[in-house]
Design goal:
The chain has 162 residues and is α/β, with parallel strands linked by helices. Helices cover 44% and strands 19% of the residues. The chain is globular and about 50 Å long. The chain starts with a helix and ends with a helix. The model has no long low-confidence stretch (mean pLDDT 96).
Length: 162
């Protein structure tokens, strides 16, 4: 595939992930969205559901990995690309390695919990049995501003409750 074609697809799927993040926010959760693609076919779309499910592991990536494994009929997600609005945390980065995801595309870095190059680099660790190809910064400003606006509103709400 031509590099410009891949860049166009990356933009398309990241926009879909941003749409999933909006659903998370509407449900009171941190706006993080995910899309997983296999052979140019979307096999999973998910958003953070920690608040909704009262489950600390219900990160968008984990929910989407479960959907994708069911859709392709295998826990090994070789040939899949995952699009995430925020750099995955250690739990999610580990799950990407275990699922054998080929490629990760994410929007904005997470300097406080990012495990794909910012704070840790689990997805590229040579000591593990699989490495994930990474493309970062796709629709970075949109992803970053969505998160910043959410947390700014949260801080204002917390101040007004006090």
């Amino acid at each position: 595939m031509d590099i410009s074609d891949q860049a166009t697809l990356d933009l398309r799927y990241m926009r879909m992930a941003l749409g999933q993040a909006e659903i998370a926010e509407a449900n009171g959760d941190v706006p993080i969205g995910v899309v997983i693609v296999y052979g140019n076919r979307v096999v999973a779309k998910a958003y953070n559901q920690r608040q909704q499910l009262n489950d600390p592991t219900a990160h968008a990536e984990i929910v989407a990995l479960t959907q994708a494994a069911e859709a392709v009929g295998n826990w090994r997600l070789e040939g899949c690309t995952i699009y995430v609005t925020l750099e995955p945390c250690p739990m999610c980065a580990g799950a990407l390695v275990l699922a054998r995801i080929d490629r990760l595309v994410y929007g904005t870095d997470d300097p406080k919990a990012g495990a794909c190059g910012s704070l840790y680099n689990i997805t590229q660790d040579a000591r593990l049995n699989h490495r994930v190809e990474i493309t970062s910064g796709v629709l970075m400003e949109e992803c970053k501003s969505q998160l910043q606006a959410f947390f700014q509103r949260r801080r204002q709400e917390n101040r007004s409750e006090q």
